[in-house]
Amino acid sequence: MRDRDDMAMGNEYNACRLCASPADILRRRADELAQPTTQQETDARDEWGDVLMVRAGQDRLCLPTRFVSEVALLGQVLPLPGVPDVYNGVASLRSRIYAVMDAARLFGLSRTADEAGHDAPVHAVIVHGPDPEAPETEFALVVDAVFGVFGVKAADVSAVPDGITRQLERYAFAMVRAAGEYGLALDMEKLLSDEELRVDIA
Boundaries of each CheW-like domain copy (predicted)? Predict the structure, then answer.
């Protein structure tokens, strides 16, 4: 009789152990998922993107690098009649003609008197649309200083603050912090596709 009771208890124990196994597996899986990710995985998830930080007037602006072809010093800029006043004119760079747009005038940003009258080399960012092979979406954006390319973390992105110019508000979509400095990130797709800024330089 006792042997039968012991056998019954053993069978009941084994049955309970089998029933508990899926729960144990789920608990173990939950514990694994709760473990901290590796630094590489964390960095990849937190990356927001790379930006080229520049200065236009007294303000720092950030251009997503996927819209930037290069930064160049322009030579002679020839006036182009009948275009919006945000354009300086046209310039040739390695046998290619670019419409040249002044970032400070475009975004309504002020320059100091010294900067406005200073005959400094013209730094231009050559920007292109989502399709870099489509030359009709390219132009040269004149800036007052170039600080470099920086990676931006998602935690360093915030909303556009109040108090910026009406023109800049039209194209800025985020405030980002890069290399310890803050700059407004520009919506380059919106800027490049703006029909009001299109000019025919053919």
Answer: 48-197
Greatest extent of the chain over all pairs of C-alpha atoms, in Å: 110
Compute the distance between CA of residue 152 and CA of residue 38 in angstroms, rounded to an integer: 19
Whether pTM exceeds 0.90: no
In angstroms, the CA 200 to CA 196 distance is 12
Buried b or exposed e, range 58-71, using 16+ CB within 10 angstroms? ebbbbbbeebbeeb
Provide the token pair at 22: 């899926």
Provide φ and ψ at 66, rounded to 5°.
-70, -10
Q: Please give the Cα distance from 199 to 87 (Å, whole number).
A: 9
CA distance linking residue 40 with residue 153, whole number of Å: 13
What is the SS3 assignment for 52?
Answer: strand
Per the model's pLDDT, the better-predicted residue between 47 and 90 turns out to be 90
CA–CA separation, 138 vs 99, rounded Å?
A: 8
pLDDT digits (tens, 9 = 90+) for 2-51: 455 444 444 544 444 445 555 565 556 556 555 555 555 545 457 899 99
Quote the mean pLDDT of the chain: 80
Rounded-to-10 torsion of CA 84, 103, 73, 65: -120
CA angle 121, 123, 128 (to 5 degrees): 155
